[in-house]
Specification:
two-stranded antiparallel sheet; homodimer
Chain lengths: 569, 569
């Protein structure tokens, strides 16, 4: 095989072992059949016609199977990227279905391009920036939004907006449009799905073995979908005013260059695309890395970025909206025995079959059922358990959860996520915003210096020695500044101020400016600022800056050198 | 004096010394007269009629004189809050002047309320969260936006939008509306102002002493304004199509309860108000603390929050838009000899006089001159020097500068600021994202443990001892996770893994989850995870959590205890 061929054919395919073929095929079929209702529903959640959910489960899945980092992760339309799409394109909703659809694909391509670029720049570490609290709070808030947004399909009341208040106020406004039969269908379906999901222990496990019960639970939404179709036809729901999804256009997603809007409009989508890329990456990585560890495989975050990026980028060219790895579809895939991405390719075949052969089968399906399906599955994403453990184990993380959660509900997805990130970063800075600054003295007869409050040490009347126990940066420079000035007031006789920098690994610009100001302030009081024990990398940074060139005192290699040079009898 | 009276009358007034009365009065008069053109211009920049610039220099100034933290800081309308107001209310611009004006006051009240609340919560430390790079980058980007936005007054081309691209594309669209005479007036005024400002050395200092030259430079914009008024009347500029500001309505700002819009609209302004409050606070504090240090006074950030907050809150009730402390007006105040806030109260009298007596005097003044005044003064805010020194002295801070600067230009003020903050926080996390994890051994015969690569130490075949040299949090937990797993692969014989936690000051939820996962992973390989030297505060947090209750190994007080208990011969 040529080396180009080797690079074009993924490793899993070159090393494919026929023994895993049957389980891969079965897993692929199972996932394909089970995720159809979800896929239709997520398209609707994204504000798109249902068929786009099937489109999004074709080309991106093929690309991910080829290039993705995980052997078993099932990518496709997921709830979070769907609602982020809807919220980003909210402003385009009344500009006609065609433009909306184009914008959704364009957004997927932007998300994909950003992910791919991040992969090329090896920014895989960026997932570390999202704390557990923020991601759980964001997802929980989004789940509530999704839940409420689906009420429009259960009630037939038009709901618009991008935040909870938006939804609720528009519900109130159009309440008289409530359609009782639709509500009945939706509520019954929702109740059955919830019972199936959370009452499985009593319903299925009372008469089935645990593994059969699991499958009964998983198959139930599909069965309900079948029942709904039959009832809808026989009772003529559509003629009674129930909105049904109608005939799904036959045929595969076609290569379509997304409409390029005004350059400014695309640019306005860029921050949203950035946040979507972040969320898609974080959730996919968390799925992929969890299963990689279970299977004793290594997880390559940069390869995940590249694979997920190209899946979205190429997907967008084939009428897909933004996709990510999904926890539930991956769990089904693994439980059904998937060993390689071949399973996903089989899933694609199921979608293709659905598109070609069953277009009219779904036509009588009420939107209310899709809405109920999503509402029932989304409840599990509201992650009260994480909030509870964060509250017990790390209040600052709980604050990030709450900030992201409330932020999403009040201000919408993007602003909420940003607020959550801000709070989590801020809480981090808070922890190092008051570094320990110790006044030290000399252990008699040694070169060691210790806190004067804890040790019996020698001090010199004209010297003030301060040990700074943290790197200096914008978050703590003012507090260090204040602390040093206080100490100089406490020891007014000391004219030589020595800062011991052994624990300072970095001094940023803000802190450098602070030290320059401090130096000037001390100079006006005829006091001199000295440094000892500056680390090599710190010295490299500040060597030729005004901080050292204008320093009123000296830089000493060690504190003992400083003391010997400066002490007065 | 009763204690209530004592609380109502500020300390500076109770202790007022008559000796400083003359200089306070002179400084107040000078500032009042000199800032009139600026104040009119900033109102226009905020999208308001010029008179609102005078309104904003009355009530807020009185409140700040009463309650503010600084004796010499001059608050009032400033460029940054003006453009942030314009950008926030951009969407209301075509809903009629009255609503726009109301929204501007409402926004000032929201900013004020947030600042006041922050003051009550003692959040003064929050100013430490903005690094030098971010604030300089944000202000520089805003200055460019302001500069470009003022081109509409110099060209008579309507310019709208909230980002550079918006401005430029709308300029292109309406380019045929260019008015040559307006452009001529604007360009000449701009050129003269720039020469005055940056050519002062050659123009004024060649024939005046340095202190006179400084005043000539400061007076020149006012003289130019007078000349423009005279020329405008004599040459009938208005009749030739030059836009002039027209008669300024006589009378003082009136108590006006701002129009309360739809609750949702107010809520949508809240994030913007939060960012404006942050920027107003950071810039005011930097002015106030600089002068406090110069005057050997202490700076109380929480009092600054309260004072600035109430200045905006009460100001908003009297037709003011958002205000902050201004560097240039404070500099004039101090240079003119201001010693107490009485100077600011004199400035207020000048504004009142202008409002009552000179309303028609300003009428012939062309908008082009106000635009040129702002453009000339704003150039100094483009802070290339900070970018340069950041580039040399702290690349990460330079990255924050560039992110905020470019972000503001492309995405507008709010998004730009958020992007800058994100980059500055992210760079901080980056610095601690790869903590040092050392494999250690025992210094023979002692209880000390040192890095095996640097010291001649004793190791035990069944023990792996790792010292973690940083607090564990979401930003580094994956990297520590990977490092520990690598070490266990490197020493496959070691079944007892001891993590030495002496340098770990905090373990957040994400890191706790990581350690739980690590514990499980090691358990599947029949390896045990132990901890030694957990600090008290950390132990308090994790004591009753699954991390310790499910730990496969033990917690030891010291590493030597762990070694003695676990080592095999």
């Amino acid at each position: 095989m040529s080396s180009i061929g080797a690079r074009l054919i993924p490793a899993w395919l070159r090393q494919y072992q026929l023994a895993t073929l049957p389980t891969d095929i079965i897993a692929g079929l199972v996932v394909g059949v089970l995720v159809i209702p979800q896929s239709l529903g997520y398209a609707v959640l994204a504000g798109l016609p249902p068929v786009y959910g099937l489109y999004a489960a074709i080309v991106p899945v093929i690309v991910y199977a080829w290039l993705g980092s995980s052997n078993v992760q099932a990518v496709g339309p997921v709830a979070i990227t769907a609602i982020m799409t809807a919220s980003a394109l909210h402003a385009y909703a009344n500009q006609g279905a065609e433009q909306y659809v184009m914008m959704a694909s364009l957004l997927a391509m932007m998300v994909g391009a950003l992910l791919w670029i991040a992969g090329q720049l090896k920014l895989g570490w960026i997932m570390q920036f999202i704390s557990r609290g923020v991601s759980a709070g964001f997802v929980s808030g989004a789940a509530v939004l999704i839940f409420v947004s689906q009420l429009k399909y259960l009630t037939h009341i038009p709901i618009a907006g991008s935040s909870l208040i938006g939804y609720l106020s528009s519900m109130q406004q159009y309440a008289q449009q409530l359609h009782p039969l639709t509500l009945l269908i939706g509520v019954v379906a929702f109740a059955l799905l919830i019972m199936n999901r959370y009452g499985s222990k009593w319903i299925w496990r009372s008469w089935l073995s645990s593994s059969y019960a699991k499958w009964a639970e998983r198959l139930f939404p599909l069965i309900l979908l079948g029942i709904a179709i039959v009832l809808s036809i026989s009772m003529q729901w559509s003629a009674h005013g129930v909105a049904t999804i109608g005939i799904i256009p036959q045929g595969l997603p076609a290569f379509t260059l997304p409409y390029l809007p005004d350059f400014r409009e695309a640019l306005n989508l860029l921050p949203t695309a950035g946040l979507m890329a972040l969320i898609a990456f974080v959730s996919s990585s968390s799925v992929a890395s969890t299963y990689a560890r279970q299977r004793n495989e290594s997880f390559d975050a940069n390869r995940e970025l590249t694979g997920l990026g190209l899946a979205n980028l190429v997907g967008g060219l084939f009428q897909s909206f933004a996709v990510a790895g999904g926890f539930s579809r991956t769990a089904i895939n693994v439980d059904s025995g998937a060993k390689t991405p071949l399973a996903s390719l089989v899933t694609v075949l199921v979608m293709v079959a659905a598109l070609i052969a069953f277009g009219s089968t779904f036509a009588p399906l009420p939107y209310a059922l899709l809405g109920a399906t999503i509402m029932a599955s989304i409840i599990g994403l509201i992650d009260i358990a994480t909030l509870k453990s964060a509250w017990q184990r790390d209040r600052l993380d709980a604050a990030s959860f709450i900030a992201a959660f409330i932020g999403v509900l009040i201000f919408g997805l993007n602003t909420g996520l940003v607020i959550g990130l801000m709070v989590s970063f801020a809480s981090l800075i808070l922890q190092s915003s008051k570094p320990h600054v110790a006044i030290v003295g000399q252990l008699a007869g040694t070169g060691h210096f210790r806190n004067i409050n804890r040790h019996d040490v020698v001090t010199y009347h004209n010297l003030l020695m301060l040990r700074i126990d943290e790197s200096l940066f914008f978050g703590n420079s003012e507090s260090v500044h204040r602390r040093v000035l206080e100490a100089t007031k406490q020891y007014p006789e000391a004219r030589e101020i020595i800062l011991i920098m052994a624990a300072v690994n970095h001094i940023d610009l803000t802190a450098q400016e602070m030290l320059i100001t401090l130096n000037q302030e001390l100079a006006t009081q005829d006091k001199h600022l000295h440094f000892s024990f500056i680390k090599g990398p710190v010295m490299d940074i500040i060597e030729h800056t005004p901080l050292l060139t204008k320093l009123s005192g000296q830089v000493y290699l060690s504190t003992i050198d400083a003391v010997d040079a400066l002490k007065e009898a």
